[in-house]
Design a protein that fits this description.
Layout (H helix, E strand, L loop, with lengths): L11 H4 L3 H19 L4 H4 L12 H4 L7 H22 L1 H30 L3 H4 L6 H14 L4 E4 L3 E4 L3 H15 L7 H17 L27 H14 L2 H8 L1 H5 L10 H41 L1
Antiparallel strand pairs: 1-2
Keywords: Membrane, Transmembrane, Transmembrane helix
GO cellular component, one term: Golgi apparatus
Pfam families: DUF1751
């Protein structure tokens, strides 16, 4: 950190990651190394539906066990950079709780889906194929970015700019398209899709916001239909309303009526979409400040390097 300017130094751009994310990265790397050194460890760490009943712990360990080098590299890089944006806004405790909860929910849904597909198709591959990886949680972290800074423009492969709110939807569409042409990729598809949906479910209904103490994000901008193009929303909204009634519908009804009457018509802090909008604005400002600081730090670093080269030549 450059104390004179209050901006991060050029080295902190690459090493200014949070302690929690670095610790989780070590766990992911350790899981990959163990599987490479002891291939039989896959049977105990990965999710194998036929063995989940005696080895129930793999519902937790599967998400942190990468089987391929590209998989562990993408997971670690994604965790470090996305975590650096989200964790300061959520807090370390909530960030860790989100990862653990989403990882467990993904494993439960993957297990149920594999069992159902086996009974439908009678193919034993659904029961004995080891499934593992952190990519489902990474997809869920993109949902967190959608919630906190939906209108922030990000560069996609340095070719085009898209709004952050479309990142989960783009990932889902690309994953479905790739799995059609590359059947071996189909094993990753359920985890990615469950990661997106379970993350939205957790953030929509169950995440406790420390600034208000209210659970969930009831704003229209974070509704289920907001993941789809606008022309599909009239069709999706009635379907999504069923899930609203199923998941804590009474709670939201209680917030909207008793709270209003108890406070003389004023809603509880954070119980309306205005508070959610303010939260997203704070997230967008935090991201803009961080990106601006890092760009300035990079420019200063390049300037110092050029001056140093010129001095050596002289």
């Amino acid at each position: 950190m450059d104390h004179s300017s209050g901006l991060p130094s050029s080295s902190s751009i690459f090493f200014g990651f949070t302690r929690l994310c670095k610790g989780l990265s070590v766990v992911l790397l350790g899981g990959y190394v163990i599987i490479q050194l002891f291939p039989s460890a896959v049977s105990y760490l990965a999710l194998i539906p036929a063995r989940t009943i005696p080895f129930a712990w793999n519902l937790l360990t599967a998400g942190y066990s990468e089987q391929t080098l590209p998989g562990v590299a993408i997971s670690i890089i994604g965790l470090l950079f996305i975590g650096r944006l989200i964790e300061p806004l959520w807090g370390s405790r909530e960030f860790f709780k989100f990862i653990v909860a989403v990882n467990f929910l993904i494993s439960i849904c993957t297990f149920i889906t594999a069992i159902a597909l086996y009974y439908i198709t009678t193919q034993e591959s659904y029961l004995y194929t080891p499934v593992s990886g952190f990519h489902g949680v990474l997809a869920g972290l993109l949902v967190g970015i959608k919630q906190l800074m939906p209108d922030q423009e990000l560069s996609l492969l340095f070719l085009m700019k898209i709004r952050a709110k479309w990142l989960p939807s783009i990932l889902a569409m690309i994953s479905i398209a790739v799995s059609v042409f590359l059947p071996e990729f189909a094993t990753y598809l359920p985890i990615l899709l469950f990661g997106i949906y379970m993350s939205w479910l957790y953030l929509r209904y169950f995440q406790k916001r420390p600034e208000t103490g209210i659970k969930g994000d009831p704003s229209d901008e974070f509704s289920f239909s907001s993941f789809f193009p606008e022309f599909l929303r009239p069709v999706l909204d009635p379907i999504a309303s069923l899930f609203d009634r199923m998941f804590c519908g009474r709670k939201h009804h209680a917030l909207s009526e008793p709270a209003d009457s108890a406070l003389g018509g004023d809603p509880l802090p954070g119980s309306d979409p205005i508070e959610a909008s303010r939260r997203r604005e704070r997230g967008a400002r935090a991201l803009e400040q961080r990106l601006a600081a890092e760009k300035l730090a990079m420019a200063d670093g390049m300037k110092e390097a050029l001056q140093g080269d010129a001095a050596e030549r002289v």
